[in-house]
Amino acid sequence: MKLFNSLHNKVEAFKPMNENEVSMYVCGPTVYNYPHIGNARPIIVFDTLKKTFEALGYKVKFVSNFTDVDDKIIKKAIEMNVDEKTITEHFINAYNADRQSLNADLPDVTPKVTETMDEIIDFIKLLVDKGFAYEIDGDVYFRVNKIDDYGQLSNQQIEDLMVGARIDENALKENPLDFTLWKKTEEGIKWDSPWSKGRPGWHSECVVMINNEFHQHQIDIHGGGMDLKFPHHENEIAQSEAAYGTHIANYWLHNGMVNIDGEKMSKSLGNVIWVKDIVEKLGGNVVRWLMLSAHYRAPLNLNDQAVETAQTELEKIKTSLKQAYVKLGLAGIELTGNPDETLWQAFLDAMSDDLNTPNAFKALFDTNKQLNAAVRTREIDYGRVAALVITIEKMLYVLGIKLDRIVLSDDDKDVFANWNQAKAEKNFEAADQYRAVLMERGLL
Fold first, then answer.
1. 61, 21 contact by CB (below 8 A)
2. Fewest 10 Å CB contacts: which of 57, 250, 392, 412?
C-alpha cells in the first residue's frame, strides 16, 4: 500500500505501527446543520480506504468524532429556543443516516466533545504546565512560537503567516498566531475549568480523542478534507509535539474539495447541495460512484455531465451483472468459488496505489467487458461467468457500491421457459406478454 503523506508531500509506502493493523482517525463534522455534498467526500474516501485495507488483509480501527460544542451550535440553539443537545443529537442522527445512505460503514467509535470534557481540560492544563500555553482573563492560548517547525504540514513559514495574520481583538495575546485552547464565555453551554467557566477551542479535541480511543499518542493515519490542513491539523500537530513529542500520525491524508459547476460551494453563492437531497435524487450508488470517479486528492467538479457519466457507467455494470445472474440462475449454477485472481489483483494494485480509483474503475470495466463476452458466447463456460461475477462483486464492495444479487424463483424460471417456448412457436402475442412480466420483475 502506498499513500500520499501530506506531512512529507510525497507518496510513501505504508508501514503500520502494528503488523496487519491500521489505526485511523478522521475529523468529523461540527453538528449544527445537515451534511452537504462536501461532507460526503471524506465520508466516502475514508470508508473506501478502510475497505481497501480490509481487502488487503488488515484489521482497521476507524475513529471519527462529532464536534458538539461550537459557537454555531449555541447560536442555533438560542434561535430555536432549545438546548444545545437537542440541536446536536438531531444533526448527529442526520449525519449517520446520510453516512449510511452513501453505503459507508459507521466508524468503530464516534467520540463527542461534550463527553470528553474532563480529558480536554486536563490536556490544556498539561500544555499550560509545560509552558506551551498561557491564560489571559480566563482565556487560554497556545504559544505557536515555541514550536520550531510550526507550518510543516501546510508548508508555511511563521514569518509569512505573521505578515498575513489578522490582529486579534484581544491585544493581550503574545502573538497574533496563538490559537485558543479555552474560551471564557457567558453565553451557551459551559464548563468549570481552572481558568474560567467556558468551553474548549476547536483544535484540542482531536488530539485528546486520539489519545483516549487508541490509548497511545501516535496512530497510523489521520485524515480529513484539504480545508483542515491549516490551521486545524497544523495546530493539532503543534499541540501533540508540545505535549508528547509526536506528530499524532505517521501519515496525514487530505481529500480534495468539491466544486459545483466549477465554482467553490458556498452559501453566499446559493450552490450548497445537501447529501440527503442528492441521494434522494440520484441514489447512494450514483453519488458514491461520482465521488470516486476522480482521484481523492484532486478537486471534484459536480455538473450534469459528470452525473450522467456516473449513471451510464453504473448502469452498464448493473446490466451485465443482471444478465449473468439470469444465465447462471437458469442453468442452476450457484455463485460460489474464487474471483479471477489476475483481474482482482489489477484492481487491488490500483487501489493500493494511493487509492487510485480511476485506475480501479478501469480494472472494473475490463472485468465487465470479459463478463459480457463470456455471457454471450454460444457455449457458455458457467464456471468462468461465475468467477467474473464474483470478481466484480468484490470490486464493488470495496468501492462501496451495493447491488443486490438476482436470485431466480421457480416461478421466474417458469416464465422464462414459457417465453422461450412462445418464441420458438412464433406465438408473438404470448411471447410479448411473458416478456412484459420479466421486464416488470427487472429480469430483462
1. yes
2. 57
Given the C-alpha cell 464492495, which residue does it identify?
397
Q: Is 308 exposed, middle or buried (0-12, 13-18, 19+ CB in 10 A)?
A: exposed
CA-to-CA separations, 385 to 369, 377, 379, 394, in angstroms, rounded: 12, 11, 12, 14
Q: Given this model, what pLDDT does residue 132 score?
A: 98
- Does the N-terminal peptide bond of residue 358 adopt cis geometry, omega within 30 degrees of 0? no
Please report the pLDDT score of residue 56 as a whole number: 98
Give the residue-averaged pLDDT of 170-191.
90
Cβ–Cβ under 8 Å, residues 180 and 140: yes
Q: Which is nearest to 197 in space by CA: 208, 207, 205, 189?
A: 189
Give the pLDDT confidence of 17-59 residue by residue, as tens digits. Answer: 999 999 999 999 999 999 999 999 999 999 999 999 999 999 9
Mean pLDDT computed over 178-204: 95
Euclidean distance between CA atoms 27 and 329, whole angstroms: 45
Phi, psi of 364 (to 5 degrees): -65, -45
- Dihedral of CA 116/122/126/127: which sign? positive
CA dist 239 and 245 (Å) reads 9
Strand bridging mode 300-302 / 263-264:
unpaired
In SS3 terms, 219-262 reads as EEEEEEEHHHHHHHHHHHHHHHHHHHCCCCEEEEEEECCEEECC
Count other Cβ atoms within 10 Å, centred on residue 95.
22
pLDDT at 170 over 80: no
Q: What is the pLDDT of residue 167?
A: 45
Count CB neighbours of 329 within 10 A: 20
Instruction: Tell whether the model's pLDDT for residue 266 goes beyond 70.
Output: no
C-alpha separations of 234 from 83, 133, 208, 228 in Å: 32, 16, 15, 8
Q: Is the pLDDT of residue 317 over 60?
A: yes
Q: How far apart are CA 5 and CA 388, in angstroms?
A: 34
CA distance 55 to 50: 9
Nearest-5° Cα angle at 137, 136 to 143: 15
- Concatenating the DSSP letter of every residue in 204-218 gives THHHHHHHHHHSSS-
Nearest Cα to Cα of residue 384 among 376, 396, 394, 374: 374
Q: Indicate the pLDDT class of residue 193, thresholds 50, 70 and 90.
A: very high
